[in-house]
Model the fold of this input.
Amino acid sequence: MPKPTCLTDLLITELQELYSLERQLIRALPALAVSASSEILQRGVLEHLDRAKTQAARLEAMMEGMGIPPMGRVCKPMEKLLDEGSETAAKKIPGHLRDVALVTTLQKTGHYEIASYEAVRAYANWLGLSDILAVFNATLAEERAANDRFSRLSALVVEFAAWPERRHSGVEQGV
Amino acid sequence: MSKPESLKDILVNELRLIHSSEKQLIRALPLFALAASSDTLRREFMRHLDETKEHAARIETMMEWMQHSPAPKRCKPMEKLIQEALDLAEKKVSGDLKDASLIATGMRIAHFEVASYDSARVYASVLGLKHVVGMLQPTLEEEIAAAKNLAGLALRLAEAVRKLA
Done:
């Protein structure tokens, strides 16, 4: 990244990276949805996909308004997260375990998104850009609510996955 | 991850990834502290370094209980997160700008850890591994607190940073 000389440079970089993050989700989530073995989880993943499309469009419009090119950054941590997720989704393992791996990936990406929106909101706040600040406040509220919903779904998926083990072996002695 | 055959395998894998993250942070946090220009931020990174050493030790204990070695398992997303933070820290930019960027990356790292520990905790809980849950819970709370501290620092930095805009 060329040397940032002011806070606006940091904001621009952050926006471009966020846009990259959402685009990566848009590319990876359809295949991940298909890999889900439970229908309710599949719907959860597709909801996430819809949201990513909405956020990407929002970011595009925002950057257009500011005269910033949307491309130019790749969010590498997100790339690694999604690579790991896709690798596991492709493995021949029982469906309920694949689902657990899937919800873990999405919990991590969800948290990462929230952290990124918090960062960009902080920059917008510092720069006194109240319109942008309002957009990110709304986005954060949506992402947090979605994350909470997905957490509840994840808990169910994990409960379901633990059944075979709990039935057969019982709980580890002394642990 | 090689083919997991049980939820316990997934838990063990997650603990290995977390252990890798903590070890990477133990090496990186002193560098973040060095790069920080505000004393408060520097102290926060050093404080978190002490916590992180404890977190790594806890994972090693849990792995012993479960009779698995922590065994190398590189957490690549954390590698990239740290790399991004250090890339900027190396550049000659003004102190406040560097601090703003360190805080932003610090928050992402903290969130990532919260997500990882929370996942592990849910698996352990569902598997009935009460002692493991008991050890993960305080770490999870400390990571959540670390994220909040950074958010607080972001607010306090705001005034100084406004002058940069």
The helical segments of chain B are 7-35, 39-65, 76-90, 95-126, 130-162. Chain B is about 80% helix and 0% strand. Chain B touches chain A through 57 residues (CB under 8 Å). The mean pLDDT of chain B is 90.
